[in-house]
Design brief:
Blueprint (H helix, E strand, L loop, with lengths): L10 H8 L31 E3 L15 E7 L5 E4 L2 E4 L5 E12 L5 E13 L3 E5 L4 H9 L7 E6 L4 H12 L4 E4 L8 H8 L3 E5 L7 H7 L5 E5 L4 H10 L10 E6 L4 H12 L4 E4 L8 H10 L3 E5 L7 H7 L4 E5 L4 H12 L5 E6 L10 H6 L4 E4 L6 H10 L3 E5 L7 H4 L8
Parallel strand pairs: 1-6, 7-18, 8-9, 8-10, 10-11, 12-13, 12-14, 14-15, 16-17, 16-18
Antiparallel strand pairs: 2-5, 3-4, 5-6
Helix pairs in contact: 3-6, 3-7, 7-10
């Protein structure tokens, strides 16, 4: 699909969307009488080493605020210019370029001081876009499972409720397994046939009978196929029991991601990231001020030393984060909204992904089954608005220049403008 260029956008917003903090320009009032210079010039920072035709170039600040920045050698990508301390524009030509960024300052004695860095950008074509959409959430899950040529284990969870599936996503990826969805009462068409196609020997039903009934579980039984239920009194106990299961969980994990069990976007985005870090996603009540005794015991049993708290204080309380600090190295990944949280989670886990997976940030159904294949393919999963591509994700395309983007769900979930990679609008 040909990407449409979007030229009417504010430079200021594009800069604000991706600018990162860098060290402030240092000043040290040393002895002027000794003739020692009193200003230091920070070494410039290179932007992302890749860019995509038709998408905004990475506009990371090249030097600290107040610096005078110039391009002193080489050439910028065609379509890109330097505006103060930022590169701005959309590359229009594929190919590598090299250039030198120079940061200058005038010392107190009038001497011009400078520091330079050689940078390069490989401008790549815009990404190819594909969509996997099923007639409903259950057929969507079957289509995602069909990406697996074989699998010895298959996970099955409720498609009507998200918590058990969210707990299962990173675990399923760790076992090289797809995640199939079902209504509580009975299996949807195609599930048993798909399990047979995969050649599975184990099916793991995640959740209690209120999520997947005994009748649905019985439908899964077949010769040479072992069916195991991992349940619990609530979504949090299910999460813990699945993680700690000796055969089908992740019974040792130095790092664990903690996400709220009361909403889906943070845990959804965190699951592929957790997989690539060798970590499970444990659902907790983010409003609590400390871990419960069973949660604390699980982390001890897992040998956990580092905890990543996913989401802002409205999702995971500050008190809960603080309470864990004496025992663990605790890192919080947050953002202004679910879309920015997703970008920040993926920035921390994926350095140079070649593909993206994009799912709805407002409806969970089509995305639940996408997390396992996303993780296994080492593709970050981003959530977006339903009628256009969220600006944060749009800017990430320009910064990382993936070769492929996979849209999860039909047009009722993510509209045609999302598939066309049309941004929601950079004011």
């Amino acid at each position: 699909m040909t990407h449409r260029s979007h030229t009417h956008r504010s430079i200021g917003s594009a800069i604000a969307g991706v600018t990162i903090a860098v060290a402030a320009l240092l000043a040290a009032p040393l002895s002027a009488s000794a003739g020692v210079k009193t200003a230091f010039v920070a070494v410039p920072v290179c932007p992302s080493a890749v860019a995509a035709v038709g998408f905004p170039v990475d506009s990371t600040a090249l030097a600290p605020e107040g610096a005078v920045v110039s391009i002193t050698a080489g050439t910028l990508p065609s379509g890109v210019t330097l505006v103060q301390r930022h590169l701005v524009g959309e590359p229009d030509t594929v190919g590598p370029v090299t250039f030198t960024v120079t940061n200058s300052a005038v010392d107190v004695d009038g001497t011009t001081m400078s520091s330079s860095t050689s940078c390069s950008i490989d401008v790549r074509p815009g990404p190819a876009v594909n969509r996997i959409g099923g007639s409903d959430r259950y057929q969507q899950a079957l289509k995602m499972s069909q990406l697996f040529p074989t699998a010895t284990t298959v996970y099955v969870a409720s498609g009507a409720k998200y918590p058990d599936a969210l707990s299962a996503t990173a675990i399923a990826a760790a076992h090289g397994a797809p995640l199939l969805l079902t209504p509580a009462a009975a299996l949807p068409d195609g599930v048993t046939a798909e399990i047979a196609r995969l050649g599975a020997t184990d099916v793991v039903v995640v959740g209690g009978e209120a999520s997947v009934s005994a009748a649905a579980l019985e439908q899964l039984r077949a010769p040479a196929l072992t069916v195991t239920r991992i349940g619990g009194a609530d979504r949090y106990e299910v999460s813990r029991n699945l993680i700690s299961d000796a055969r089908f969980g992740l019974p040792t994990a130095e790092k664990v991601y903690l996400a709220t069990g009361s909403n889906f976007p943070d845990a959804l985005t965190a699951s592929p990231a957790a997989f690539v870090k060798g970590a499970p996603v444990m659902l907790v009540n983010g409003a609590e001020t400390a871990l419960s005794a069973p949660e604390s015991a699980l982390l001890t049993a897992e040998g956990t030393t580092a905890v990543t708290v996913v989401g802002g204080p409205n999702s995971m309380s500050t008190a809960l984060e603080t309470s864990m600090s004496p025992r663990f190295t605790v890192t919080r990944i947050s953002g202004a909204d679910r879309f920015q949280v997703g970008v920040n989670i993926n920035r921390a886990a994926f350095s140079s992904p070649t593909s993206f997976v994009v799912a709805s940030g407002t409806a969970f159904a089509d995305a639940l089954s996408g997390g396992s294949p996303a993780g296994i393919s080492r593709s970050p999963l981003y959530v977006t608005q339903s009628t256009c591509l969220t600006n944060e994700v749009y800017l990430e395309i320009g910064r990382l220049a993936p070769a492929q983007i996979l849209i999860l769900g039909g047009t009722a979930t993510l509209g045609a403008d999302v598939e066309a990679l049309t941004p929601c609008g950079l004011d």
